[in-house]
Amino acid sequence: MNTEETGMSSAVSLRGVRKTFGDVTAVNVVDLEVHDGEFFAMLGPSGSGKTTVLRMIAGFETPTAGHVRLSGRDVTKLPPFERDVNTVFQDYALFPHMNVLANVEYGLKVKKVGRDERHERALQALSTVRLQGFEKRKPGQLSGGQRQRVALARALVNRPKVLLLDEPLGALDLKLREEMQVELKAIQRQIGITFLFVTHDQEEALTMSDRIAVFNAGRIEQVGTPAEVYENPASAFVAGFVGTSNLIEGRTALSVLGRDGVYSVRPEKLRVDIDLDAELPEGEHSAIGTVAEVVYAGAATRFVVDLDAGGRLVAMQQNLKASSMDVLKLRDARVRLAWRREHEFSITGPM
Ligand code: ATP
């Protein structure tokens, strides 16, 4: 679907973009439309080409082939400073000897914006990222999360149309990362500019994004909302990378589902029955197997089950009543996995 058809305007548009470094093909023909005001994630394993795509949008790399457009304008050959984008890097790249205010004002100073306006805009950007009162501190006197916010303020002060973020939360510990995920999303909603970010963390992409592009080996395998990508993965790669793949295929598919093909069921959709002979509710499929592994994780337990019909499935069960003792006893137990048929989906894309 192109932009005219959706009626939305395109903040970033890539057409037939390719990038090679000598013998290495980093990006192998990518087409992508990011809409105005979207929070968009480029998700994929290390080396899949997402950072290279981000750098071509920023202007730090020139595509070997194809075109990059920002708000409809072809910027393929333009240097970074002539593009209406700003980048927040994973290491923040703050000036250690300058205080927070000077760090945030710096870009405006380079652009020769007057002192009063510079000051006012920097204070406003610091207020957006909730860092009022920190103007005089040096980066070394801030926590990781606060440094991340200064880096964000420094980019926002330029009022770019598109903000590019390269693994913006990668340097933070888990708890802070989860807090900043919520905060980044809130800031983006408040200021309404397009955020395009790179991550290899599927949960982060699912939590924050309006849409996600899943990268694999220099190509995009699927673009969709978090729910589309998670519940309806276009390929076995996407099913495996965005969640646990849980494939049912070959003779297992024939014996368990009564048909050929490759199918997947998400772990949280599987119920672990201890009573193998209990009546199966209408509309469910089931498979019997042996519990190979039990991982108790507080709120939930993860069961790895080797199916009698062949293959292995992972089931996640909420610990509504069970304690750790109850679930750990189930190692090596015989169990029945059951799920509603509408939760099994066929995987048709490339393997
Ligand atoms: P990561 O999450 O590890 O940053 P990525 O998905 O962002 O990975 P890229 O950094 O875009 O992947 O790299 C894609 C491929 O291109 C990799 O094989 C990488 O080694 C290669 N590559 C990237 N930059 C260069 C370069 N300047 N010279 C040579 N090869 C490069």
Can you walk me through this structure?
With 351 residues, the chain is an alpha+beta fold. It has 2 domains: 3-235, P-loop containing nucleotide triphosphate hydrolases (Rossmann fold, 3-Layer(aba) Sandwich), CATH 3.40.50.300; 265-342, RNA polymerase II/Efflux pump adaptor protein, barrel-sandwich hybrid domain (OB fold (Dihydrolipoamide Acetyltransferase, E2P)), CATH 2.40.50. It is built from 11 helices and 18 strands. The protein has helices spanning 3-6, 50-58, 100-110, 115-128, 144-156, 174-191, 202-208, 226-231, 236-241, 250-257, 324-328; strands at residues 10-21, 24-35, 39-43, 65-70, 73-74, 85-88, 162-166, 194-199, 211-216, 219-224, 247-249, 262-265, 271-273, 284-296, 300-307, 312-318, 334-340, 344-346. A hairpin with a 2-residue loop joins strand 1 and strand 2. Helix 3 crosses helix 4 (115-128) and helix 4 crosses helix 5. The protein is elongated, with a radius of gyration of 24 Å.
What's the topology here?
Layout: H1 3-6, E1 10-21, E2 24-35, E3 39-43, H2 50-58, E4 65-70, E5 73-74, E6 85-88, H3 100-110, H4 115-128, H5 144-156, E7 162-166, H6 174-191, E8 194-199, H7 202-208, E9 211-216, E10 219-224, H8 226-231, H9 236-241, E11 247-249, H10 250-257, E12 262-265, E13 271-273, E14 284-296, E15 300-307, E16 312-318, H11 324-328, E17 334-340, E18 344-346
Helix pairs in contact: 3-4, 3-5, 4-5
The chain binds adenosine-5'-triphosphate.
Task: Spell out the key features of this protein.
single chain, 351 residues, alpha+beta, Rossmann fold, OB fold (Dihydrolipoamide Acetyltransferase, E2P), 2 domains, six-stranded mixed β-sheet, five-stranded antiparallel β-sheet, 11 helices, 18 strands, 32% strand, elongated, binds adenosine-5'-triphosphate
